[in-house]
Design a protein that fits this description.
Blueprint (H helix, E strand, L loop, with lengths): L13 H12 L2 E2 L5 H8 L3 E4 L2 E4 L1 H11 L2
Antiparallel strand pairs: 1-3, 2-3
Helix pairs in contact: 1-2
Length: 69
């Protein structure tokens, strides 16, 4: 999801940002996830661990950069 310059390759939707922020607090059960979570998996910002969605290092980096704005 991040280019080699550390920039997002595409903009995230408001729903995807909300899902990313929710995951920064706690994992989300796979059965509770929406299509937005699957988009974040495809983007490499979220991974599925056992039966939960969880942030990847790249997803954490996106949130850190947003907090710095």
């Amino acid at each position: 999801m991040l280019s080699h310059h550390g920039r997002l390759r595409r903009l995230l939707s408001a729903h995807e940002f909300a899902a990313l922020l929710l995951l920064s607090s706690a994992p989300v059960e796979l059965t509770s996830g929406t299509a937005d979570y699957l988009e974040l998996v495809d983007a490499g910002l979220v991974q599925i661990i056992d039966t939960q969605f969880a942030l990847t290092d790249e997803g954490s980096m996106v949130l850190t950069r947003l907090a710095a704005l």
